[in-house]
Design brief:
The complex is a heterodimer. Chain A is α+β, with helices and mostly antiparallel strands. Helix content of chain A is about 25%, strand content about 30%. Chain A has a 5-stranded mixed β-sheet with strand order 2-1-5-3-4. In chain A, a hairpin with a 2-residue loop joins β3 and β4. Chain B has a 4-stranded mixed β-sheet with strand order 1-4-6-2, with helices on both faces. A 4-stranded antiparallel β-sheet of chain B has the order 5-3-7-8, with no helix packed on it. The longest helix of chain B has 18 residues. The chains are: A alpha+beta, B alpha+beta.
């Protein structure tokens, strides 16, 4: 299945606005992050485990256990600083 | 009028507090209290005046509106309020500019005051906005504050936004 990934703020600067990613059925945000980390380079650096990375699925804040379905929109971004 | 106006607006343009308050309570004579909060851009991050010369606001279109709508729903669930509106600016801003507005109406002051603070505490840690400051050393992304997570915790809600912990992983 295919999911659309979006990046914001410092992650957007490092990785661009987003990209489409092919994932196996039953994938979660953790699966997606693993697939991106496996690319190495900037992805491995920006999305490294232990960094302050937040995520959302279909525009709702979540964590890595969140399930993804075909056509889903996943997003990775740093802690928010609005207001 | 107030019932059909959008409760959340994300815009580059400035806003007028008086006009927003008037629109919010127009046609509702059950309103006895209106509380508002206006956030403005400071020229400093720490103690040094003038160190911040500009601010850029990025957001996640679509999610921002959804997240704030959900916060307003939560405020209606917790407090006896009659209407609420949130306006947040994006794009380039300068010190002194208005950046965010929360307005809440209720029958009596307590609920309006509390709902206004609740919405701001919620917005600071759960709405997808990011600030980038321009300083003499260059541009830098603003760090989230643990104090903002603590402010939301007073309402019994765990934020998990600030700090270096990787909360995408749980």
């Amino acid at each position: 299945m295919k999911v659309q990934v979006r990046y914001f703020a410092s992650l957007r600067e490092a990785l661009g606005p987003g990209e489409a990613v092919d994932l196996p059925e039953g994938a979660t945000v953790a699966t997606l992050r693993d697939a991106l980390l496996a690319r190495g380079g900037r992805h491995a650096e920006a999305l490294a485990r232990g960094r302050a990375v937040r995520c959302a699925v279909n525009q709702v804040m979540g964590d890595e256990t969140a399930a993804l379905s075909d056509g889903a929109e996943g997003a990775f971004f740093p802690p928010v600083t609005g207001g | 009028m107030a019932a059909t106006a959008p409760r959340v607006r994300i815009q580059a343009e400035d806003f007028d507090l008086g006009a927003e308050v008037a629109a919010l309570r127009a046609g509702d004579l059950g309103v006895g209290a209106v509380a508002s909060f206006v956030g403005t851009v400071r020229d400093r991050h720490g103690a040094q005046a003038g160190e911040v010369s500009a601010l850029e606001l990025e957001h996640y279109p679509g999610m921002t509106e959804r997240a704030i709508e959900a916060m307003i729903d939560a405020a209606f669930g917790r407090f006896d309020i009659r209407a609420a509106r949130v306006v947040h600016r994006i794009g380039p801003l300068a010190p002194g500019d208005q950046i965010v507005l929360v307005v809440v109406s209720s029958a009596h002051r307590g609920d309006a005051f509390q709902a206004c603070e609740f919405l701001m505490d919620y917005l600071k840690t759960q709405a997808p906005f990011w600030k980038k400051e321009t300083t003499p050393e260059g541009a830098r992304w603003v760090d989230a504050r643990v104090a903002d997570d603590e402010a939301l915790a007073r309402w019994g809600i765990t934020a998990g936004n600030a700090g270096s912990a990787d909360t995408a992983r749980r």
